[in-house]
Amino acid sequence: MSDSMLFLIVLTPFIGAGLIVVTGNRPNLRETVSVATGLLLLAEVASLVPDVLAGETPGLLLAIPVPGVPLALQVEPLGLLFALIASSLWIVTTIYAIGYMRGHHEIHQTRFYAFFAIAIGATMGIALAQNLFTLFLFYELLTISTYPLVTHAGTPEARRGGRVYLGVLMGTSIGFLLLAVIWTWQLTGTTGFKAGGILAGQASPLVIGILYGLFAFGIGKAALMPFHRWLPAAMVAPTPVSALLHAVAVVKAGVFAILKVTVYIFGIDLVGGSTASTALLWVAALTIIGASLVALYQDNLKRRLAYSTISQLSYVVLGAVLANAASISGAAVHIATHAVGKITLFFCAGAILVATHKTRVSELDGLGRQMPLTMGAFLIASLSIAGLPPTGGLWGKWYLALGALDAGYGILVGVLMLSTLLNIAYLLPIPLRAFFGQSPKTTVQFSEAPLPCLVAIGITTAACVTLFFFPGPVYQLASMLIP
User: Can you say whether the dihedral through the CA atoms of 87, 93, 98, 101 is positive or negative?
Assistant: First the structure.
């Protein structure tokens, strides 16, 4: 049953997309279909949990388009964690989108929900990919299916953002990632993911280093500098799309892929001993600090959050490249905790836009007295992104710091601490000024965003705090990556 369930998990969002199109002229039914599809998908993914916790890895062969290169699915702890995050947050994002899309009078809403569902289907394919070939196909499908979402508004600015988005992601994947996949196949005769990796003893240290660099930069969705420009450019999209890009699917698919390649293609022993890994450590560290500094000077709220994501997701790359049990676990935990923290921040940014039409940080002074629920949630999510208690964001940074010490890179603990200070500097003043700053002199009174937006914000804010007190289930899956 678990084997066939893998196919259903990937198929369900695509069926949902078709039903969304069919019911497009009946908005209430269309949105009910979208939420129901999300609930069904989450139930399907959750049904795999007992098997994975028991140490099983059910798989399913779909096709063999090229001899020796199968299209196949398989679930393992990291893929299950990613699938649980994406399927859970799809439901919440759909609830939020109902309030946002209607409240902001967005056009082409049926197209939005349909492509969102297709993107989730591609994400499930990435999460459950049994080999590099399958991962690459669904990775490309995710890029293509999110392009119409990025360009949703149809304005010249949206089209420019879409060109940058498509150009960087397709350019890196075809120029670097595809080459890395083919090279791996040529070296080993397989592209399958395997515990401990498949490349040990198959090539010289120089080749291994070059290959790892191709994977790291070829997976452009991870937004490592200098291949990060697509993420701020994509902020022209509606806020639910920004949530998809930052928390549900796209950048998470990037860092998930880097982590999976590290563990199941190279193996931590091979990565930890390579010269390339040392170089990539400093690329990740510079991205963490550099993007945080850029975020500090962004007045546009969504752009500030975009550069925050570039910085935060490099934590996962850092954990992958440190290549020890603590750092790998920390990277996996950070994927989950960052997802709920960052989606909350984007939900709040969208709620502010719907309620007030304000997009700039400098315009938000005093707003907390009129939108206390939204700005209170923003405060809690900011604490989570900064890695401060009582929020779950603490645990990913904790294990990353332990991993850095285990690897003999105490200086990276300093990088994490400096990053935390920068997180505080570019995030916490926003809610503090909203509550305690002087409101501009105006007769206009604002209220909270529509109820669906507030419900979604409440769910993800609660998750930020819950993961501080109950991180066990997430850590249990994360710790299974390295026996």
Answer: negative
Q: Report which DSSP code applies to 152.
A: T
List of residues 6+ apart from 417 with CB closer than 8 A? none
Q: Are 358 and 439 a contacting pair, CB within 8 Å? A: no
| Torsion (CA) 453, 455, 458, 459 in degrees, nearest 10 | -110
| Cα distance between residue 179 and residue 172, in whole Å | 10
Phi, psi of 66 (to 5 degrees): -130, 135
Average pLDDT across the chain, whole number: 91
Owning domain of residue 419: 2-479
- Could you give the C-alpha distances from 156 to 152, 161, 162, 396, 440, in angstroms and in order? 11, 9, 10, 39, 32
pLDDT band (50, 70, 90) for residue 2: low
Burial class, 307, CB count within 10 angstroms (exposed 0-12 / middle 13-18 / buried 19+):
buried
Query: What would the mean pLDDT of 321-337 be, rounded to a whole number?
Result: 94
User: How large is the average pLDDT for residues 22-51?
Assistant: 94
Q: For residue 213, give both structure tokens.
A: 């660099």
183-199 core/surface letters (b: 16 or more CB in 10 A; e: else): bbbeebebbbbeeebbb
**Looking at residues 392-410, what average pLDDT do you find?**
94
Report the 10 Å Cβ neighbour count for 392.
27
Q: What is the pLDDT of residue 273?
A: 66
Residues 288 and 325: beta-carbon distance below 8 Å: no
CA separation, residue 220 to residues 121, 276, 333, 394, 479 (Å): 20, 17, 21, 26, 26
CB 42 within 8 A of CB 459: no
149-187 residue pLDDT tens:
888 877 888 899 889 888 888 989 898 999 999 999 999
Helices marked H in 23-54 — which ranges? 27-46, 49-53
Q: CB within 8 A of 329, min separation 6: which ones?
A: 399, 403, 475, 478, 479, 481, 482
Q: 294: which DSSP letter?
A: H
* Distant-in-sequence, close-in-space partners of 290: CB < 8 Å, separation ≥ 6: 225, 311
- Whether the CB-CB separation of 124 and 134 falls below 8 Å is answered with no
Q: Could you say which DSSP state residue 360 is in?
A: B
Structurally, the chain folds into a number of domains equal to 1
Beta bridge pairs of residue 129: 73
**Cβ neighbours, 10 Å, residue 276:** 20
pTM listed for this prediction: 0.95
The per-residue pLDDT for 113 is 93
pLDDT tens column, 215-238:
988 887 777 878 788 888 887 878
As a dihedral over the C-alpha atoms of residue 312, residue 317, residue 321, residue 324, rounded to 10 degrees, the angle is: 70
Q: Residue 65 in 3-state DSSP? A: strand
